[in-house]
Amino acid sequence: MDRSQSSKLRADLKVRLYDRKVRLYDRKVRLYDRKVLKADLKVRLYERLGRLTLAVAALLVAAALPASAQTATAARGALPRMWDGKPDLNGVWQALTTANVDLQDHSARLGVPAGQGVVEGNEIPYQSWALAKKQENLRNRATADPEEKCFLLGVPRTMYAPFPFQIIHSPGYIAVFSEYAHTTRSIFMNSEHPPGPIEWFMGDSRGRWEGDTLVVDVKYFTDQTWLDRAGNFHSEDLHVVERYTMTTPDHIQYEATLEDPKVFTRPWKISLVLYRRKEQNVRVLEYECYAYAEEEAARRGELGPK
């Protein structure tokens, strides 16, 4: 076999391997869609049962209350609720901010709109060394941002990235499915974190209800994620406490308090609104970052025989 035939054979093998990888991605997407559909059908059944139970209970309570109490009960009952009385967060949601570009106030530049910050006081309390590191990250953001490497975005960045996500929940478990790279986030209710230390891109999430507010405690992170494209970062010791408060049937007030003694001088908080996606037949689609990156590399001739 001469050299040209050998090169052609190697190129053919690489193409076959690439095609096989694409088929595996496609199979993964179909399995993912099937999983989401089954979970969604189950939640719909819970919703119907829960709404019927709550409607009957509301009628019985209203008949026994004076007029002033009935008014307060009606205002509280405006929120959709699960069968156990907790706010129904099921649905597709998305943040409409530029926080993924920069958590703080920022001016417009080519390809980036101006944005108002979501940080309380518009100040991130970096230690002096960490502020210098943040500025270095900003200068190198085009290649250093983990999002450019198709890494999972972590918490809280996943919640305000420019991708919709679906919440499916029951009293014991909440799943968050993001369009970005098929990120699946599990929130285990009323349970303790496992023994650490552990390093996970999405951390370990444990939830509880405080009245009508879902509180999620997240720890055990890796230091391989950023908080935005402006270079804001954290260490593996990041600790996040999230609060999800449904203010109307279509709005969730989202707050996250971040603490990291290796990087920040004190805890600090972000606050923004999550909006329910209302389009007909809305659903979470897919953004297969790795596959798109390989396609682009192939287009530029960076894959295949040299």
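(the above was protein one; protein two follows)
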Amino acid sequence: MVYTYLAKLSSRQKLWFTVSVAAGLLIIVLGILCEPDRPSQAGNQFTVNMSIREIAPKLGVTGKGLARELALPLETPKKKPLNELGISQEQLEHATTHILSHHSTGLKYYLFAAIVLFGLVYLTRFGRPDNANISERKLWYPRIPYIICLLAAVLVCGFLLGKSPNPMEGTVKVFKSMVGLYPSVTDKLLVLIFFVLLAIIGNKLICGWACPFGALQELVYSLPILRKMKQWKAPFWLTNTIRGGLFFVALLFLFGIVGGRKGFVIYHYLNPFNLFNLDFDHWLILVTVVVSLALAFFTYRPFCHLICPFGFVSWVAEQISLTRIKIDHEKCTNCGLCIKACPSQAAKDRVSDKLFGADCFSCARCLNVCPEDAIRYGSVFSKSSREKLQKQSALEKGSASVGIFGGFNR
């Protein structure tokens, strides 16, 4: 089927494929060249005879940030030696190791951008071969390019380069910096803006194609088992209420509105990205990883839908995404095939034209099932898209009936 798909690509689409791969590789090479030296991971350079004020700047955190890692009140005196504050050398080494594990590698930003770029071009330019008509729609959007991107996200952006940065962390650190756990709010805000832009350029493409733990859940869900159980889809109103409610409660604790102590980070205990560093410093982290992956066998992206704070933020952002799934409601017969193919309630909400529908992770499952050619992935700025779809459909039917070799380009 892959060879047939490649044969059906037009010359223009082959050029798009070549350019997108070349551009992605160029972005990655640029990231490698721009990668700064990583900070030392040696924890023995710090001793309990030193103060928080001496250690914190070398770790890239504030005094409050180091105090939180040491389970001390944020207002703990920063000039006192740690041994006078009751901190042991073992506690200090554990805290510094954890802080250093959050140090970002800049290369991952370039990799995220490269994967999102490829996914965007694939979905909008060459996923659907110009020379394959509606009767050959099973050739459209083969899964292999998507699976390759998911594997790259898990193996390279995850296990090879470690947990940081990632979209979840990018969200949480903005608010942690607001309570003084990091020196600069601006730096953390720029990281969040980067991830949000990747979610807007292509509808949640950063979540659907490039996020390491999101990709791991996608791969688990894609295994051809428990198919009957996968037919049940959790109501979006319920999952989004849980996710949004947790986000709100987490902020109340972080800012000390609840609990009376600033700096308590609920997401620290629910961070599955620790898997990529094999760092389970709290038993709840391991439980989160195990339960999320177990549920992923029959529930679509449970962590993304129920817990992830960036999942909630990007759901808001996708309301203004520049490229997305589009339904031609004049051609749609409500046959339900796209709804059945979709692993969540996203297709159902788009068919019904719901204002704030369920998260769409741009997985492309719905794009090759419609017998009326009423569903496409494209820009929200495309001119007269409905007329264009109708025109292309008519031309495809005509070319199929007279056996014209080739096809027309979108």
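Reviewer note on protein two: The CA atoms of residues 57 and 270 lie 27 Å apart.
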